[in-house]
Each structure stands twice: as C-alpha cells, then as structure tokens.
Design a protein that fits this description.
The chain starts with a strand and ends with a helix. The protein contains 10 helices and 9 strands. Helix 2 packs parallel to helix 3, helix 5 packs across helix 6 and helix 8 runs antiparallel to helix 10. About 50% of the residues lie in helices and about 15% in strands. The longest helix has 26 residues. The protein is α/β, with parallel strands linked by helices. Helix 4 links the parallel strand 5 and strand 6. The strands form 2 sheets. Strands 1, 4, 5, 6, 7, 8 and 9 form a 7-stranded mixed β-sheet that branches. A two-stranded parallel sheet has the order 2-3.
Length: about 240
C-alpha cells in the first residue's frame, strides 16, 4: 500500500516547531518529512499538500530530501501549494490537483537592516534565489525562463486547470468537476521577528519548574495564564 505523507500548514525550520506547537498552528518541517521518508523505506509515497508556503531554507531542505528519495512520489494538491510549497510539490514524479485547489508562484522576498553594503548583499541573495526558482520551474514545465520569471513577477495564481495547461501539474483530480477559485494569501501566521520573543516566553519558566519546593499545581496554573496574557500582547501589539 502506498504511504501518504501529510504536508499541511506552513513550511518552517525544525527549531520553530515549539512555537507552532504552543500556538496550535499547522506546520511541517524538514525533520517531519525526513522521518516520514525514513518510515516509507523506499516504497512509493503520496504527498498530500495544503500549504501557503513558508521559509525558503526549510523548503529547500525538504525539496532536496524528496529529490533524493529512490521510490516514486505522487503529489496530490488538495488545497494550496503556494510559494515554497509549489516547488516542494514539483519534486514529485506526478502532480495532481483537486479542481478547487490553487498553486501560486512569486519572487523571493526578504528584509535587511544595515548599510548600503548590507542592502546590496540582500539584493544579490534574493536575485540568486529567483534565478534558482526560474530554473526549477522552467525545467519542470518546459516554459522559457523569461515566461517563468514574468509569472513570478506577477505573483501568479493558478487553479488546477491552469496549472496543468502551464505544465505545473499533470492532471486535475475528479475531472468531471469544474475547477473553482478560492480566496487566499500566502502570508505566514507568525512573522519571523516574533519567533524569538515567543520562544523566550515559552521557556522563561524552565528554571522555576525545577524548584521542588513550589506549590506545583497553583504555580503551573498561574504560569499558563500569565503566558496566555503575554502572548496576546505580543501577537496583537
């Protein structure tokens, strides 16, 4: 029986998982996929994808692991395959999309702080990422690099039928149904600059937890309530 690997939620680095678990947000990370691939033991696998994308480094690691996998990989896009999730999907040997699913490609984005040399370095990094994505999409779809680049510049959304027509997918699932568009954006639930602050909040009471003389039940309850209040201030400030 073919094994299914769930790719639901945002693509994140392994060390962000504690934050996403605490907030109960859906995600998958390189370690999650590495463990799933190991358990598949070379058998054919199906990727079930519904992701707005996420972090480039984590997505690149996942893409590489999938490309190295010796078995056949089928990707079923059941919701979104946006940004990093789009090229993760293209690591599969066969890509199918639900009639109501969408794929989105765009240029790499980032930020920089510092002097003009720092700005120049960030520009070069983003430009090199764009070129890598152009090469990947062009090789898979057969479209020219110029056409792919323009699609990325335009932040192109594709329903299942359009994705097949442009070579990003191989088939539309349940072809007797009509493709439908849905509203969405590819933004992250947690901004990168918030990760460190939330991590500090999550782990600030570790030392106190080791104090055996504290009234455990009452202390833990107060700690949880305090964390919830502080978290609300962080996320909405």
């Amino acid at each position: 029986m073919m094994k299914t690997i769930q790719m639901k939620g945002e693509v994140i680095p392994d060390d962000y998982s504690d934050v996403y678990n605490f907030l109960n947000y859906k995600y998958f990370s390189p370690q999650d996929i590495s463990d799933a691939i190991k358990n598949a033991n070379g058998e054919d696998i199906t990727l079930e994808i519904n992701s707005p994308g996420g972090y480039i480094d984590a997505g690149s690691e996942i893409y590489t692991k999938l490309m190295e996998y010796p078995g056949t990989i089928n990707a079923n896009i059941v919701g979104y395959a946006c940004s990093a999730a789009s090229w993760i999907a293209l690591a599969a040997d066969h890509v199918a999309m639900s009639p109501t699913a969408e794929m989105m490609i765009h240029r790499a984005g980032g930020s920089a702080i510092g002097n003009s040399s720092d700005m120049k370095s960030e520009y070069n990094a983003l430009d090199q990422m764009d070129k890598s994505f152009v090469d990947l999409y062009a090789k898979r779809t057969g479209k020219s690099p110029e056409d792919i680049y323009q699609m990325m510049v335009d932040t192109t959304w594709m329903n299942a039928k359009t994705a097949v027509e442009n070579g990003f997918a191989d088939e539309v699932m349940f072809e007797n149904q009509e493709p439908a568009l849905v509203n969405a954006n590819g933004s992250l639930s947690i901004k990168p600059e918030m990760i460190g602050k939330i991590k500090n909040l999550l782990h600030r009471d570790i030392k106190k937890t080791n104090d055996v003389s504290k009234p455990i039940e009452k202390k833990d309850k107060q700690s949880k309530e305090s964390k919830k209040n502080d978290l609300a201030l962080l996320l909405w400030s």
